[in-house]
Structures are given as C-alpha cells and as structure tokens.
Amino acid sequence: MGGRVTRVFRTFNVESRARREISKEKPTPAPRHPTARLDTAADCAEIKEEILRKDSRLLTLLKDVYVESRDPPVQVKDGSSEHLPRKQEEKRLTKLGHLEAVDVKKVSKGKISLVEALTLLNNHKLHPRIWTAEKIAAEYSLELKDVNSLLEFFVPFTIQEFPKETKKAIKS
C-alpha cells in the first residue's frame, strides 16, 4: 500500500519537471588556471641551450666520487634452509579420550583442544570438588585466570528426559 502512494508522488508531473530541468541554463565551468605550455618551453632556444650545457663544477665533483662494490660470495642453498626461523612453541601431547580419531595430537602450551575443553568442562560439572580450577590449570598447562573464566562462562549441555505422563498432558 505504501509503495503505491510513494509511486504516485514520484511520477506526478514527471514530464514537466524534466523539461524544466533541461531548459535551465547550464552552469559555466570554473576558469582554468593559466599554465605555461610545455610546447612553448621546448621551442625556446635559451632553455634548450641550458639543458645541453655541461656544468664544469658539477663534473669535477662527480670525478671525485669513487664507488667500489663487491658481490658477496654465492652460497648454495640446500632444501633445509628454505624455511625462515621462527619462535619455537612448546607443545604438549593432548589428553585423548574416546574421541581420539577426531582430536589433534599436539597442542601448544597454554591452549587446549576442543575435545579437551569438553572433557574438562564435563569433569568439572560432574565432580567439582575433585576437578577444581587449580587442578585443571596444572593438568592442561593453562593459566588459572583462563580456567576460571572458562568454568564461569562455558557450561556443557545437559540432556533431560521428561516422564511420559507429561507428554500426554501436553498433547491434550
């Protein structure tokens, strides 16, 4: 409904508005800044003479400059030195459970894999007195503040099965 109303106002008197715009005087362009033409400068004999003249003072200064360069000795590169050196990260083997085929084998210290994260969250949920934040941090080589944040903000899902009587009550 709103589209029809706006279309009516948009198309109202279109032809006369277009003729009015076309009949207006065109604005005059801004005046150009006067510049020296390159063609006229090339024709001038004085400029050509100045370009072709040699400056003796600059030539004597140039003769005093002496540059000596030597190429470094060529070294044959073998395949092992192609990689750039990088900071070696300490890695640890993951604590693999029954999802061993899905998980990665090595993880950098201070990080955990997805399977390990789910495992430690589930362990903490089932046995919070045994799996404290300090024990998890020591077990998985993590910082205590990161473990506290992980346990506070991430909670694994729980499956709840409702008794069959409630299903009948909902249907009717």
From TrEMBL:
Could you name the domain of life of the organism this protein comes from?
Answer: Eukaryota
Q: Where is this region: Disordered?
A: 17-36
Task: Mark out the compositionally biased spans (Basic and acidic residues).
Answer: 17-27
Query: Can you name a GO cellular component term?
Result: mitochondrion
A single Pfam family it belongs to is: UPF0240
Q: From the record, give the transmembrane residue ranges.
A: none
* Gene Ontology biological process: mitochondrial respiratory chain complex I assembly
| InterPro entries per record | NDUFAF4 (IPR009622)
Family under the similarity heading? Belongs to the NDUFAF4 family.
Q: How does it assemble?
A: Binds calmodulin. Interacts with NDUFAF3.
> What protein is this chain from?
NADH dehydrogenase [ubiquinone] 1 alpha subcomplex assembly factor 4
Query: What's the source species for this entry?
Result: Formicarius rufipectus
* Source lineage: Eukaryota, Metazoa, Chordata, Craniata, Vertebrata
Question: What gene does this protein come from?
Answer: Ndufaf4
